[in-house]
Amino acid sequence: MQTGKYEKLILEKLELVNGILAMAVEQNTAVKADDLKKAAALDPDKKRLIDKMTELDRVLPDFRGEEKENSENIKEIIRNVNSSLNNLIKIEKESETLISGHYGNISGEHINAYKTYKQFK
């Protein structure tokens, strides 16, 4: 059986999501290791994949009716896309919390230092 255009497109989306997820995991690991430069260095490649996925999402609806959307294979691919997206969201939220905590700690340290500089009367 020849794979239809819609199925090829959602398989491509799955590959993109998994690529972004892999980069997010790598960034998360870098953030945990306090290597924010390494984490930031991955952003351009991740952004490129996100842009590709955005473009893909624009054309996917045009092909949805081209084949039976409710075929088991397509349903499984869609479940995998959604599962990977859920994992991606979880990892990104964790990274965001770690980064904001990191900068919060730095700010807190600065605030404490500033307090010692206050001139008391």
Overview of this protein structure:
With 121 residues, this protein is an all-alpha fold. The chain has one domain (5-96): Methane Monooxygenase Hydroxylase, Chain G, domain 1 (Up-down Bundle). It is 83% helix and 0% strand. It is built from four helices and no strands. It has helices at 5-32, 36-41, 43-63, 72-117. Helix 1 (5-32) packs antiparallel against helix 3 (43-63). The model has no long low-confidence stretch (mean pLDDT 84).
Radius of gyration: 21 Å
How is the main sheet built? Answer: none
Summarize the helix and strand pattern as letters. HHHH
Q: Please state the structural category.
A: mainly alpha
Outline, from the CA principal axes?
A: elongated
What is the helical fraction, as a range of percent?
over 70%
Please give a handful of descriptors for the protein shown.
about 120 residues; mainly alpha; Methane Monooxygenase Hydroxylase, Chain G, domain 1; 4 helices
